[in-house]
Write a structure and sequence with these properties.
This protein is 34% helix and 6% strand. It contains two helices and two strands. It has a two-stranded antiparallel sheet with strand order 1-2.
């Protein structure tokens, strides 16, 4: 069996340098909802027959681009 592990592409979100707890929670939500910045996949996933990924939008979008 061949197993590959891929991290999601970079997320288009700029976190604040400093924030209180409410701003932190808002920033986490914004990060989770932010679009990805597609990078080079170079056909990495072409040799895999199955792809499993997290249900997080950034993971699904990355999997769709590389698989």
């Amino acid at each position: 069996m061949k197993l590959g592990l891929f991290r999601h592409f970079k997320v288009d979100h700029q976190a604040p340098d400093f924030c209180n707890s409410r701003q932190y929670n808002s920033s986490c939500i914004a990060y989770d909802e932010a679009p990805i910045i597609p990078g080079a996949a170079n056909g990495i996933a072409a040799s895999y027959s199955v792809c499993y990924c997290s249900s997080m939008t950034r993971a699904v979008d990355t999997a769709r681009l590389i698989y």
